[in-house]
Design a protein that fits this description.
The chain is α+β, with helices and mostly antiparallel strands. It has a single domain, classed as Penicillin V Acylase, Chain A (4-Layer Sandwich). The protein is built from 13 helices and 13 strands. The strands form two sheets. It has a seven-stranded antiparallel β-sheet with strand order 3-4-5-6-7-8-9. The protein has a six-stranded antiparallel β-sheet with strand order 10-1-2-11-12-13, covered by helices on one side. Helix 1 packs parallel to helix 6, helix 4 crosses helix 7 and helix 9 runs antiparallel to helix 10.
Length: 342
């Protein structure tokens, strides 16, 4: 399966590798990290992934072969947050979910804006996968990354938001653990993957089930918190919400724009009693606090580590098993619908 992805997406994977090389080069004065040193650092994480998730290391090896790039380069792409010690501070993703209590048609919907360097917008693709020994899934992905944002045939959906714990260590890369979530048949099984032992760090995983169960699972290398949607909706951006997790947050005073986006999204969710796909789409297009808004346009070429935009916007309807995807800023582009046909 990895080889098929690599062959089909070869130009996009190769382009994302070139973009990553350029990003590290432009940030050398801050990171003091060459590509060769990044390869060395990334190689330290692979044995942990191999021990717990050999199938996904195999998948990466297949992507590497199919895309005709070295495995060492692919390891850097999938461990970028780890090898840069989170200095990239990707602080602008937004995730929202609502269940039957808060939708006009009784559907369960999860919405997400993925923000990253603008050069990778052309590398985004939708993957409809049928693994041999895992459930089929539909996921958004870009470049040479392992897929992790999407939903599977058991009605489990995941969106991942970067967070910045201070207890990072060499271990299982965040992307590998997140990829495993798409294989889970149950909510508890999904959470166990998020909390796998010897993880290097963690994301916030917004977890939704077609039954209407909604969670934020805030994770670091050694700690976690489980936040539940008691009122039928849940929101997350790029800072920890749980008090215990805030104690392990790195440079929390720098994470200002994420808090502005969180409270803005929370207000918009609460403002409408019963949501629809259209009302959620309007939230994803919101420009309050522009350019660091929910619909992100923060492309400042003089600051390479802060240069981002919304490269894809997603709406996942777990009730109909459909994903709507918009390439680029949702305020400027239209959504296309994809179905998980098992």
């Amino acid at each position: 399966m990895g080889r098929q992805i690599g062959e089909a997406m070869r130009p996009r994977i190769q382009n994302s590798l070139e973009n990553a090389r350029n990003l590290l080069a432009s940030a050398y004065s801050t990171l003091q990290l060459t590509w060769e040193n990044a390869q060395i650092q990334a190689s330290k994480y692979i044995p942990f992934a191999q021990e717990y998730y050999p199938q996904y290391v195999d998948e990466l090896m297949g992507i590497s072969a199919g895309a005709n790039i070295s495995f060492d380069d692919l390891a850097v792409l999938n461990g970028m947050e780890a090898v840069t010690m989170d200095a990239l501070h990707l602080t602008k993703c937004t995730s929202i979910a609502v269940n039957q209590e808060r939708t006009a048609d009784g559907h369960v919907i999860i919405a997400h804006n993925e923000d990253w360097v603008p050069e990778d917008e052309e590398d985004v693709y939708i993957l409809h996968a049928r693994p041999d020994h895992e459930p089929p899934y539909l996921a958004m992905n870009y470049g040479g990354l392992l897929p992790n944002i999407g939903f599977n045939a058991y009605g489990i959906a995941q969106c991942a938001d970067s967070v910045y714990p201070s207890d990072c260590r060499v271990g299982i890369p965040r992307l590998v653990a997140s990829r495993a979530v798409l294989s889970a048949p149950t909510l508890s099984g999904a959470i166990r993957h998020m909390l796998v032992p010897h993880r290097a760090a963690g994301y916030n995983h917004m977890l939704a089930h077609e039954s209407g169960e909604l969670y934020n699972i805030e994770v670091s290398a050694r700690h976690f918190a489980v936040l539940y949607a008691h009122e039928g909706y849940i929101v997350h951006t790029n800072h920890y919400l749980d008090a215990g997790m805030r104690a392990v947050e790195s440079e929390s005073d720098e994470l200002v724009s994420t808090r502005v986006r969180y409270f803005r999204a929370l207000r918009l969710i609460r403002k409408t009693p019963l949501h629809t796909v259209d009302s959620l789409r309007n939230i994803l297009k919101d420009h309050v606090n522009f350019e660091d808004s929910i619909c992100n346009h923060a492309v400042d070429f003089s600051r390479p580590l802060d240069r981002e935009k919304t490269i894809v916007s997603l709406l996942i309807d777990l009730t109909t098993r459909q994903m709507q995807a918009c390439w680029g800023n949702p305020c400027e582009n239209e959504y296309y619908t994809y179905e998980l046909n098992c």
